[in-house]
Write a structure and sequence with these properties.
Elements lengths: L4 H10 L4 H13 L3 H12 L10 E3 L6 E3 L1 E4 L6 H9 L4 E3 L4 E2 L2 E2 L5 H9 L7 E6 L7 H15 L4 E6 L5 H5 L1 H12 L3 E8 L4 H10 L5 E5 L6 H5 L5 H4 L3 H13 L2 E5 L20 H10 L6 E5 L3 H8 L9 H14 L21 H13 L3 H10 L25 H12 L2
Parallel strand pairs: 3-4, 3-12, 4-7, 7-8, 8-9, 9-10, 10-11, 11-12
Antiparallel strand pairs: 1-2, 5-6
Helix pairs in contact: 2-3, 4-5, 5-6, 6-8, 9-12, 13-15, 16-17, 16-18
The chain binds iron/sulfur cluster (2 copies).
The site of one iron/sulfur cluster has 13 residues, from helix 18.
């Protein structure tokens, strides 16, 4: 079924429901959500006519936290104004990280300060997550100092969820200091729940280990229509190319069964900048279709996406409330896959990892390429590439033979990594 704002208006009109009645009904439904609901109802009622508002709230696994189905991704967030705008649209879930800067990772102003500025006086009406890349060698004192610095920037004395960020190796999950830290921070009331986020190599191994050892309350993981063999199966015979990605869905199911909250990120399959309007229909955009695809997974509680402007945020918020893909949604996603999969490195895949004798972290390099070429965010890509160290640029003087044919999806690794180095070095 199509899901454009016009369709929703039409549905309401057919049912004889005017805007005033709709808002009254929203208010009654929202009241069941406690303090969040009361605050949400007030915001929904004051939103300008025609403005999108959050339409669905979910309970995040066994945490019991109630959050908006679409949450605020803050990587690349340029100001507190956008945070306020999303709050006014009914959003209650805000995700950030100590490494996010307004001009890339670690560059510019801390994005956490924008969140703190916008939400410090609404603390009981929102759920805030922040993240820190805790390395295998980090001790609990260091991790605690990172959390406390985040709390100061966020202008709060606790975060609802604290995640070990971008976990890409089991050693980082096995660090006993992390768990000492978590116990202490929970006892002191500085965090309520903990978990991991991931989008790099060994993602599946790390999630599986975390679930099997009951290490997490919440996981934040890459997930998009390009990760699902069943989606491809509709129009390609090359099922074997994508079969390894089925693991993500299985792991989400396992997490869901254990009561672990599941939040999806990187929902846009690289979000290649291009005009898909010829394939978009009934007012539904590619971005909304991609969000709806993720939110239709019964094992996904919510999705976050980077809110980089008020217009972009409104467009994403229009995807709130619907689970299920319409025919026009499927068409635009299929078009995207057919035309933009050839240079897309799948999050969580690490099949080529052992191919490079020089130890180039291929998946991590190609993720920086995605930030630069697809997201159009050069500062973010440059800071991420710098963090990978000098060895990431070894491709510039390599024949490319060792990694030839190493990609399970047919990507021309050396051409892409060289192009990335040329773009981001210096
Ligand atoms: S081009 Fe050479 S250095 Fe770069 S990933 Fe391939 S094998 Fe490694
Ligand atoms: S380059 Fe290919 S094989 Fe390597 S991580 Fe990316 S998608 Fe997987």
């Amino acid at each position: 079924m199509a899901d454009s704002p016009k369709d929703r208006e039409a549905d309401r009109d057919r049912a004889g429901i005017d805007r005033r009645t709709f808002l009254q009904q929203s208010s009654r439904a929202a009241l069941g959500l406690g303090a969040f609901g009361v605050a949400y109802a007030a915001r929904a009622a004051s939103a300008p006519a025609g403005a999108p508002t959050i339409q669905r709230f979910v309970t995040l696994g066994k945490t019991g936290l109630v959050i908006s189905d679409i949450g605020f991704g803050s990587s690349g967030c340029p100001s507190a104004d956008i945070v306020r705008h999303c709050y006014d649209r009914g959003m209650t879930y805000f995700d950030t990280a100590e490494m996010y800067g307004s001009e890339g990772w670690g560059d510019g102003e801390f994005v956490e300060t924008f969140i703190g500025e916008a939400l410090h006086d609404k603390r009981d009406k929102v759920v805030i997550t922040t993240k820190y890349v805790a390395e295998a060698k980090d001790d609990r004192k260091l991790i605690m100092s990172k959390l406390e610095a985040s709390l100061r920037r966020l202008r709060t004395d606790y975060v609802d969820i604290f995640l070990n960020h971008a976990v890409n190796h089991l050693d980082r999950l096995k660090n006993p200091e992390w768990f000492e830290f978590v116990d202490r921070a929970k006892q002191q009331g500085k965090i309520r729940f903990s978990g991991m986020s991931g989008h790099g190599g060994q993602l599946q191994e790390c999630i599986e280990y975390a679930l099997d050892h009951d290490l997490v309350d919440v996981i934040l993981s890459s997930h998009n229509f390009g990760s699902d063999p069943k989606f491809y199966e509709r129009f390609t015979k090359k099922f074997d190319w994508v079969a390894n990605q089925a693991g993500i869905r299985r792991l989400f199911e396992k997490a869901h069964q254990k009561g672990v909250g599941v939040i999806a990120m990187k929902t846009q399959m690289g979000a290649k900048l291009n005009d898909l309007s010829a394939y978009e229909a009934e007012g539904a955009t590619f971005q909304q279709a991609a969000l709806r695809w993720v939110l239709s997974d019964p094992n996904v509680d919510a999705a976050i996406i980077s809110m980089t402007s008020k217009e972009v945020a409104d467009s994403y918020i229009r995807a709130s409330g619907k689970r299920g893909l319409g025919a026009s949604d499927a068409r635009v996603l299929e078009h995207y896959v057919r035309n933009h999969a050839a240079d897309y490195c799948r999050p969580g895949c690490s099949r080529c990892e052992s191919a490079c004798p020089l130890g180039v972290p291929i998946a991590d390099v190609l993720r920086q390429r995605m930030y630069a070429k697809r997201y159009g965010n050069l500062p973010l890509a440059r800071s991420g590439y710098r963090a990978l160290g000098e060895s990431a640029s070894a491709c510039l003087s390599c024949s490319g033979k060792p990694c030839e044919n190493a990609c399970a999806y047919g990507l021309d690794i050396s051409a892409l990594t060289r192009e990335t180095a040329a773009l981001l070095v210096g």
